[in-house]
Amino acid sequence: MSEATKRVRVRHFAQAKQAGTKIVGLTSYDFLTAGLFDQAEVDFLLVGDSAGNVVFGYDTTVPTTTDELIPLARGVVRAAKRALVVADLPFGSYESGPDDALHTAVRFMKESEVHAVKLEGGVRSAAQIERLVQSGIPVMGHIGYTPQSEHGLGGHVVQGRGDARESFLADAKAVEAAGAFAVVIEMVPEALAAEVSQMLTIPTIGIGAGRHTDGQILVWTDLLGVATGRLPRFVRQYASLGQEMIESVSTWRDDVRSGAFPDESHVFED
After folding, report:
1. 50 annotated to a ligand binding site
2. Of 74, 70, 68, 75, nearest to 32 (Cα)?
3. Which helix (H) or strand (E) covers residue 130, if one does?
4. Is 157 found in the same domain as 117?
5. How far is CA 78 from CA 25, 30, 82, 220, in A?
6. pLDDT tens for each residue of 139-172
7. What is the pLDDT of residue 151?
């Protein structure tokens, strides 16, 4: 997308796919990081239910609630002057049908003023996507590995292999037919993601889906080296901020204990 774009809109996603311009997305859960990523001209910011892991310390995204995500989304929206802000609909807030999906999405649109919402599932979520789009709410889909279904999928398992290929293709077609403006494809073989990216008219956003999707997204704490533990294979760390933060705070701690901080340059005179 053009660096001169004042505000990324849904139509810019379609234009980027047509022009062959890669779309760049990143998660964000607060005002400060959203402002920084916006200055870096990330095209869209996802207030993901991954906040359950990153912000609230849950083992999975499943416990994350709408009431927890809306305040985070509100902060991201206030900081983002250019990026499109998308919010995840959390597990349990849309699965029972289009009415629940619309109720949850309306809450996000009104209470946090996000620009779009994202929900997981292809064929099984097509009716929900269609209802939201008909109501004027832009929807980003999410197929392949869907974290909210982690327990049903048996953990972090690559999707779309073998007999699962046809159901994955059906999910991709269903999301597009329902009216989504883009679709996240997570943890599928590269060749399959490339095939779907060629097949669909809407942009595909990859995360662990190889090199041939129309864009990429990562969780920011993975990208910048704040997350701890084993990283997914598809992550490249561009910084080690976590270690830098530990070292900086440790140095400050030592300076406080030794009396080196504060010094005369940090105090007020009479």
Report:
1. yes
2. 75
3. helix 126-134
4. yes
5. 17, 9, 11, 18
6. 999 999 998 888 887 777 899 999 999 999 999 9
7. 82
Q: Do the domain assignments include residue 5? A: no
Q: Looking at the annotation, which residues are catalytic? A: 186
**Mean pLDDT throughout 2-10?**
82
Based on the fold, state whether residues 111 and 151 are members of the same structural domain: yes
Rounded Cα gap, residues 144 and 34, in angstroms: 27
Global pTM exceeds 0.90: yes
* Torsional class of 147: left (φ above 0), alpha (ψ -120 to 50), beta (otherwise): alpha
Residue 17 DSSP code: H
| Separation of alpha carbons 144 and 157, rounded Å | 10
Contact 46, 88 (CB under 8 A): yes
Q: Does 120 belong to an annotated binding site?
A: yes
pLDDT score recorded for residue 143 = 98
What's the CA gap between 161 and 230, in Å, rounded? 24
Q: Is 88 annotated as a binding residue?
A: yes
Q: What is the DSSP string of 175-217?
A: HHHHT-SEEEEES--HHHHHHHHHH-SS-EEEESS-S-SSEEE
| Res 3: pLDDT | 62
31-39 and 66-79 helices cross at what angle (nearest 10)? Answer: 40
Whether 110 has a binding-site annotation, put simply, is no
Domain that holds residue 265: 241-269
Q: How far apart are CA 38 and CA 46, in angstroms?
A: 12
